[in-house]
Amino acid sequence: MTREETGFRPRSAWTIAFLLAFMMLVNFLDKVVIGLVGVPMTQELGLTPTEFGLIGGALHWLFAISAVVGGFLANRRPTRTLLLGMGLFWALIQLPMLFASSLWMIVACRVLLGIGEGPASPVATHALYKWFPDDRRSLPVALLHSGSAMGLLVAGAMIPWISLNYGWRTNFAVLAAIGLVWCTLWLLLGREGTLDNLRSGQLASDSRRVPYRRLLGDSSVLGNYACHFAANWSLALTLTWVPSYLEIGLGLDPLRTGHMFVMFVVVTTPLSLLMAWLSQRLMRRGVPSRLARGAFVSVCLIAGGLFSASLMLTELSVTTRIIALTLSGGLALVMYSVGPAMLAEFTPSSQRGGILAIGNAVASLAGLSAPVITGLLVNGAGANHPDGYAQGFMVCGIVMVMAGLIGLVAMNPQRSCERLAQEDAPALASRA
After folding, report:
1. DSSP string of 42-82?
2. Contacts with 399 (C-beta within 8 Å, 6 or more apart), sequence order
3. Cα 85 to the chain's mean position, in Å?
4. Which of these, 17, 37, 57, 67, lies nearest to 160 by C-alpha position?
């Protein structure tokens, strides 16, 4: 089929992809700022490591609920409008942080931000899938999440410098301004994709609805959710505790800590894009998605988990530890680009937003748990002792390896597609 016949319009599709990547950059600036202002904020407000871990996890307290609500809204409402509303909310909720002076006020701001950011990834992914066909989806979603990684790069270069020169609170005013810039661009250039509508007109199977109990009981969905949980554990640990680990655990100064975040992005962004491109290339060459997507993601998580767990080894140099951190985080990011494409293979487009959102909700439980558990370990070992941090990375490694093993066994999108089609056949026959 030609591009016109399939409804695929590359120029418009990639414009939307870059706009949504910018949105995820804003999203991650909002998330990572707490980790990068953690030391001066903790010193000014007299917070303990456990209290700081509480702040780090607060973003995820209602994240799961808002993710599910937003995902199901995306099944029925234009994603263009939903994303604009979220972007405005993110920008405005930064402003109270300019005056926050207590633990619970900061926690409240982070909880509200989590409500606004919960649906971001599934709704943005759902929006992208309205522009790209199945065999072209991994790379644009990798670009989407490379926006997240670029958020780390910008944060590492910008936030420590602003904190040193203008105070840590000024960062939140800057983030509000950046968020409003994205809202303006999206209002001017953002559009709703039409590929799903064209496909629904051409393919009766794509217009069907499958009971959610069948979808949520499918082994590929469950394995996908387990891997998403592990990837989010790694990400939450990176955003909340890695800056403090670099500065306090490894003795780096604040600016060098920011530079290490830049290095993290310089390595992980190309790595994530390369892996997504490789998975997409395997798919287009006819490799079964069980291998090109399912096994691919699982092996990346297992390798990333081993790198994370290796930080327990006491003889590692600072350079080796930073390399291990970078590779662990980079390999975990592969799940964010390839994982949703697996679910989209067999989920009807009219239910895709909901299924992606439920996956985000499950993963957000890791975002809630990882900062708090790591905070307790750091507190137990002593705030200035690296052992607590290393124990947190060991827990992260165990979670990633276990999820990768589950994924190897459970994720088989083609089998899921065949099973759901077979279950639908008797119902379709009885209607005929």
Report:
1. HHHHT--HHHHHHHHHHTTTTHHHHHHHHHHHHHHS-HHHH
2. 229, 230, 233, 305, 366
3. 19
4. 37
% helix, strand, coil for the chain, step of 5: 85, 0, 15
Helices 386-410, 349-381: axis angle to 10 degrees equals: 150
For residues 228 and 335, is the Cβ–Cβ distance under 8 A?
yes
Percent of the chain with pLDDT over 70: 90
Query: Cα–Cα distances in Å, from 402 out to 99, 167, 305?
Result: 42, 42, 9
How many angstroms separate the most distant Cα atoms in the chain?
72
Task: Give the Cα separation of 63 and 73 in Å (integer).
Answer: 15
- The tens digit of pLDDT for each residue in 238-279 reads 877 887 787 777 777 777 776 776 676 677 777 777 887 888
Q: Among all chains, which residue has been given the structure tokens 């941090």?
A: 389
* Cα dihedral 100, 149, 91, 118 sign: negative
Q: How far apart, in whole angstroms, are the C-alpha atoms of residue 96 and residue 210?
A: 43
pLDDT tens for each residue of 289-327? 899 999 999 999 999 999 999 988 888 888 888 889 888
Q: Tell how far CA 211 is from the center of its chain.
A: 27
Question: Which tokens belong to 170?
Answer: 């000024």
Domain segments of the chain as ranges: 12-193+212-419
Q: Which of left, alpha, beta for 102 (phi over 0: left; psi -120 to 50: alpha)? A: beta
DSSP one-letter code for 130: T
Question: Per-residue b/e over 250-280, b at no fewer than 16 CB within 10 Å?
Answer: bebebeebbbbbebbbebbbebbbebbeebb
Considering the domain 12-193+212-419, what is its CATH architecture? Up-down Bundle (1.20)
Q: Which among 380, 403, 426, 364 is positioned nearest to 236, based on CA atoms?
A: 364
The letter for the amino acid at 402 is: M
Residue 179: in which H helix or E strand, if any?
Answer: helix 170-189
H-only helix segments in 245-317 = 254-284, 289, 296-309
For the question of whether the overall pTM of this predicted structure is more than 0.85, the answer is: no
Stated as kind and residue range, the H or E segment containing 18 is: helix 10-36
- Per-residue burial over 295-325, b = 16 or more CB atoms within 10 Å of its CB, e = otherwise: bbbbebbbbbbbbbbbbeeeeeeeeebbbbb
Q: Nearest 5°: phi and psi at 46?
A: 65, 40
